[in-house]
Amino acid sequence: MDQISATPGVAGQPGGPEFGRMIEALRTVQAAITGAAPPPEVSAEVGAILETVAGALEPYLVGEDEQLSGHRDDLPGRGQPLLPPLWLDERDETHLRGRVTFDRFHLGGNGAAHGGAITVLFDEMLGRLANAGRNRARTKYLQVEYHRITPLDTELRVEAKIARVEGRKRFLTCALYDGEHLTADAEGLFVELLPGQP
Ligand SMILES: CCCCCCCC/C=C\CCCCCCCC(=O)SCCNC(=O)CCNC(=O)[C@H](O)C(C)(C)COP(=O)(O)OP(=O)(O)OC[C@H]1O[C@@H](n2cnc3c(N)ncnc32)[C@H](O)[C@@H]1OP(=O)(O)O
Q1: How far apart are CA 18 and CA 145, in angstroms?
Q2: How far is 1 from 30, CA to CA, in rounded Å?
Q3: Whose CA is nearest to atom 46 of ligand 1?
Q4: Is 141 a member of any domain?
Q5: Distance from residue 168's CA to the centre of ligand 1 (Å)
Q6: How far apart are alpha carbons 31 and 36 in whole angstroms?
Q7: pLDDT by 10s per residue, the chain, length 198
Q8: How far is the CA of 190 from the centre of ligand 1 (A)?
Q9: ipTM, 2 dp
Q10: Ligand 1 atom nearest to CA at 198
């Protein structure tokens, strides 16, 4: 993926508001399935509906460059269901600030968000910033610390900064807050790709 579009789509066109609604519904389904203990007949019925859903989309399978998911900057988490719904409110080439809410789909245990889901958020934040107005770079390492549990169903603040740039190396930091409380933070190294690196 080399480009993402910040332009809201046009109703009636691929990538219009209908697409955003579908992704939102998928997020709702992910949380509902994760949190449910349905009787077998309901599991069977929902499973069959989801097989129908997958079948409805199958004729429209496209390559990575043409897919809409992940390419939509006007949708939370770029419209990529792997990412928790993230809204970026401030952004320049040195910092990013946004809001994110984890839900039941992102549960680790005992009401806390899964540490891996938090790491996905940090990789996204640092990746977005590392690539803002610069040549492409990829994560070399991402070191995460969990300071206290990250609650579900709570709007959290997330901030990323460039710490320093040394040649191809971009060192960045990211922090996640529940109100005034730091729940997790990370330091990452992104390395600018050489010609020919995928
Ligand atoms: C995502 C692509 C960009 C798209 C941009 C589109 C626009 C924006 C749109 C949408 C935003 C999307 C946002 C997505 C974000 C997601 C990001 C990810 O998750 S990326 C996937 C996970 N990461 C990998 O799969 C990397 C796999 N690894 C590699 O490909 C290579 O290892 C690579 C390119 C990272 C580096 O490989 P080498 O061989 O070119 O470089 P070496 O020699 O290892 O290191 C370079 C320098 O770094 C130092 N270095 C290496 N490891 C170090 C370490 N642990 N600590 C300190 N320095 C280290 C070395 O000493 C060297 O330093 P010296 O240049 O000589 O000064």
Answers
A1: 38
A2: 24
A3: 191
A4: yes
A5: 9
A6: 9
A7: 667 888 888 888 888 999 999 999 999 999 999 999 999 999 999 999 999 999 999 999 999 999 999 999 999 999 999 999 999 999 999 999 999 999 999 999 999 999 999 999 999 999 999 999 999 999 999 999 999 999 999 999 999 999 999 999 999 999 999 999 999 999 999 999 999 999
A8: 5
A9: 0.95
A10: 30
User: 116 in a domain, yes or no?
Assistant: yes
Tokens standing for residue 30: 């992910």
Q: Residue 172: what residue type?
A: L
C-alpha 147 – ligand 1 centre gap (Å): 26
Same domain, 65 and 115: no
Question: Could you tell me if 152 and 106 lie in one domain?
Answer: yes
Structural element, H or E, at residue 172: strand 169-178
Closest atom, ligand 1, to C-alpha of 139: 23
The residue nearest atom 3 of ligand 1, judged by CA position, is 136
Mutate to test the pocket of ligand 1, among 80, 135, 191 (most ligand atoms within 8 A of CB): 191
Residue 59: strand, helix, or coil? helix
- Which of 140, 166, 169, 192 has most ligand 1 atoms within 8 Å of CB, for mutation? 140
The amino acid occupying position 42 is V
User: What is the number of the ligand 1 atom nearest to the C-alpha of 191?
Assistant: 35
Q: Which DSSP helix (H) or strand (E) runs through 122?
A: helix 115-130
- Count the residues in the chain: 198
Global pTM?
A: 0.96
What total of structural domains would you count in the chain?
2
